[in-house]
């Protein structure tokens, strides 16, 4: 090849290289973080941090499905600008099962049978059910009060009355 053909060829390849480099969007970490936060609008329990193109998600979600969906939203929003996603989200289901109603056990006979088993580990406590309410009396160390309450609550009475207990 002669010089007349090489010079235009070099200029053309330089222009193509420069054009390819300038086409890359290369969002800054701050811009990428803003873009992802906008895509996650409505998820106030999720925090987003971006460092060198690596997106880190932290916070809580209510289900595994929500966790997976949010990660996919991040990957879609950051598409060509993110390097990877570090998912530190924690699944924290809502308190109480809103789909299953709590059935209150107001049958005193059934409650009294359950009470005998429930308080077997608390020899200084007596309890009886009247009109669906469990009333406990006796003495108990402070460290065991919460455990007793939980055990009696599992019987699903209308309520548990511990006012008759003497706490040591």
UniProtKB/TrEMBL annotation:
<dbReference type="Pfam" id="PF04972">
    <property type="entry name" value="BON"/>
</dbReference>
<protein>
    <submittedName>
        <fullName>BON domain-containing protein</fullName>
    </submittedName>
</protein>
<dbReference type="InterPro" id="IPR007055">
    <property type="entry name" value="BON_dom"/>
</dbReference>
<keyword id="KW-0732">Signal</keyword>
<feature type="signal peptide">
    <location>
        <begin position="1"/>
        <end position="20"/>
    </location>
</feature>
<feature type="domain" description="BON">
    <location>
        <begin position="23"/>
        <end position="93"/>
    </location>
</feature>
